[in-house]
Amino acid sequence: MPDVESDLRARAESDSVEFFFAMFVDMHGKPCAKMIPAEAIHVLTGGGAGFAGFAAGPMGQSPADPDMIAVPDPASYTVAPWQPELAVLQCDIHVEGEPWPYTPRLILKGMVEKARQRGLVCNVGCEAEYFLVRRSDGGGIELADSLDRAEAPCYDAKGLTRMFGHLTTVSKYMNRLGWANYANDHEDANGQFEQNFAYADALTSADRLIFYRYMVHTLAHQAGFAATFMPKPFANLTGSGLHLHSSLWDAESGAELFVDPDDARGLGLSQMAYQYIGGLIAHAPALAAILCPTVNSYKRFGVGAPQSGATWAPAYATYGGNNRTQMLRVPDGGRVENRACDGSANPYLAMAAQLAAGLDGIDRGLDPGEPNLDNLHVLPAEAVASRGIRALPPTLLHAVDELVADDVLREALGKTPDGDYVDYYAKVKREEFHAWHSVVTDWEVERYLTLF
After folding, report:
1. Which residues pair with 342 in a beta bridge?
2. Is the pLDDT of residue 1 over 50?
3. What average pLDDT does the segment 8-21 reach?
4. Is residue 14 part of a domain?
5. Considering 43, 74, 98, which residue would you say is the last residue of a domain?
6. CA-CA distance, 185 to 156, in Å (whole number)?
7. Residue 426 lies in a domain
8. pLDDT of residue 310
């Protein structure tokens, strides 16, 4: 058995690490942490760091429950490049010595293990879009770069240059961590950016995405502005997605299982890949509750063009080749890009649910049919309906109703001491929807105040 404490202590000494963050995320994907001095590493390795779970967020606890214990995963050890005396350890939550089933990371680990028992490894690459903003004098938000006003700002070299310091720092840090940053660009909205890193197995990618968002937030704050991964922070601008590129590989040989150069449909995909796609389409309405988990998420969906750039969010559960109007895009053979997922998603839950849906498609031998070649943003609604294409849910409430009725995702997200995790998730999200729905907005006042 490896001596975890000795290994971590040696790494900390080699890297001159003085403090650890014992980190986990709640249902919403919010990172929570305790700071542990390196001299007290035995606290982490001898049991774990204690948290009052009720105070951390929706983690299935009340004030009467015993502490949640964050047990670190040594494989997640990551030195913070901007603060090299700090290392972050992603943790799994235990309560009274047992894994706590409300833990998003444990939910993904369970789903990954089910795939591995079938001889499969799921690899995932993430494209996380975000805005750089600052608080305005009136209390709202405005773009951090006041000059970023182009009508078509996507790939704008001047916009990249003005944020060069922030973007290159993030890029250098990703490469220092060994993540292989391969592209950084100005996205389709004013003030919006994307910085890509190489794919990895699902758990590693989810851990990295949590650290990446934490890093981008921190560096933005240090530069005097803020970053937001909120799906739709501006009504008139393109929203932010979290596009997930997924594929299945043979656990023993390492062979790619989604590739077929002789694919008759011309996308370079294997039969297994098409069945996986069939599963994602079949479960798309329920998946939306996990991939698009906020009331704001559903303001990103649609087919109408915003004032800046275009809309890239899907409206329907479809797939196609290199066609960005589809929910599922196949940019090349061997992987599938899910474009429905947005920046507010908890990556552990999103990847677990997506994997479960895809495996169900394989088990049932689902055929998604021929790839959709149309521009779905301009296809008339009657043409969409005539093809049996299903629209994605219009609100979080609709999506949650789909989720609780989906037995595959119910099983995938697991059981808790109080019932299925799906029902706990649905309760939290319905409360979120109703809290938002109870607010009287300026739009309502302007429209209805003297109308009647």
Report:
1. 241
2. no
3. 95
4. yes
5. 98
6. 8
7. yes
8. 56
Q: Please indicate, yes or no, if residue 103 is contained in any of the structural domains.
A: no
Q: Tell me which amino acid residue 186 is.
A: H
Tokens found for residue 102: 């409300």
Q: How many domains does the chain have?
A: 2
Percent of the chain with pLDDT over 70: 97
Provide the residue range defining the domain that includes 141: 111-444
Contact 64, 30 (CB under 8 A): no
| Amino acid occupying residue 357 | A
Across 327-335, average pLDDT: 93
Residue for token digits 């590129």? 245
Long-range contacts (CB closer than 8 Å, 24 or more residues apart) made by 407-412: 408/283, 408/356, 408/357, 408/360, 409/283, 409/286, 409/287, 409/290, 409/353, 409/356, 409/357, 411/356, 412/107, 412/111, 412/352, 412/353, 412/355, 412/356
Which of 38, 63, 98 is where one domain is finished?
98
- Give the type of residue at 320: G
Of 358, 343, 77, the residue nearest 207 (C-alpha):
77
CATH number (domain holding residue 9): 3.10.20.70
- Rounded to whole angstroms, the Cα distance separating 416 from 309 reads 44
Q: Encoding tokens for residue 240?
A: 């932010």
Q: For 236-284, what is each residue's pLDDT tens digit?
A: 999 999 999 999 999 999 999 999 999 999 999 999 999 999 999 999 9
Residue type for 413, please?
A: L
Distance between CA atoms of residues 27 and 104, nearest Å = 6
Distance, in Å, from the CA atom of 73 to the CA atom of 77, rounded to the nearest integer, reads 7
Alpha-carbon gap, residue 423 to 51, rounded angstroms: 24
